[in-house]
């Protein structure tokens, strides 16, 4: 729960920094705000859910259970893309 709250706080702070940076023309502050927003989003996604696992893992497991064929196709495509990248194609 604390990770989710920290993530939300980082997202809000980042949005404020981005807006302030855009208003003042400070690109460094604006970029820092964007980084804070991404950091907050990752923290919220990795926050443990009701079952103690990160929320993102719970969503992935639910998707795999609901759509096993789509999951298999997705894993296959990602595997082929990884192999192609490693081979340099």
UniProtKB/TrEMBL annotation:
Annotated CsbD-like domain residues: 4-46
SUPFAM superfamilies assigned: Hypothetical protein YjbJ
InterPro entries referenced in this protein's UniProt entry, alphabetically: CsbD (IPR008462), YjbJ_sf (IPR036629)
Parts forming coiled coils: none
Disordered: annotated segments: 1-31
Pfam family of the protein (one): CsbD
Family, per entry: Belongs to the UPF0337 (CsbD) family.
Name the UniProt record assigns to this protein: CsbD-like protein
